[in-house]
Fold this sequence. Notes:
Layout: E1 9-11, H1 13-17, E2 22-28, H2 31-36, E3 41-54, E4 57-71, E5 78-80, E6 83-92, E7 105-106, E8 111-113, H3 114-125
Parallel strand pairs: 6-7
Antiparallel strand pairs: 1-8, 2-3, 3-4, 4-5, 4-6
Amino acid sequence: xxxxxxxxxxxxxxxxxxxxxxxxxxxxxxxxxxxxxxxxxxxxxxxxxxxxxxxxxxxxxxxxxxxxxxxxxxxxxxxxxxxxxxxxxxxxxxxxxxxxxxxxxxxxxxxxxxxxxxxxxxxxxxxxxxxxxxxxxxxxxxxxxxxxxxxxxxxxxxxxxxxx
Length: 164
């Protein structure tokens, strides 16, 4: 997806060759990299985990912590959502068919991009609809005032839009 800096790309070649080998990984994704994936963060994404060759199968299990700066879908107010999730992946250097691609993390050059893995997992863990509160009233369609801050005086229920 994005071109990551060298600090996020790690070689997994030695792990692939040695069963029962383990390596811990710990990285913080910088603000510029997080923003390049379209997710600005108030608290930068931090990865803490382990890569382990279990009987010839390379597994990655890690914890991702961060606070992405989201926007309420109704009123556009900033929303701080605390993320503290654990993810687990099987890493392969090739797949038998394209149908298997979704089941595995593919590292064809035996290089794993930690930023891409973390930011993709983060994006997939975010809700499809972000609200500042479950009862958010949104913006007035007439004047644009945030209805959570009080009544704007517009009678938007009586207004019909003419698209001719």
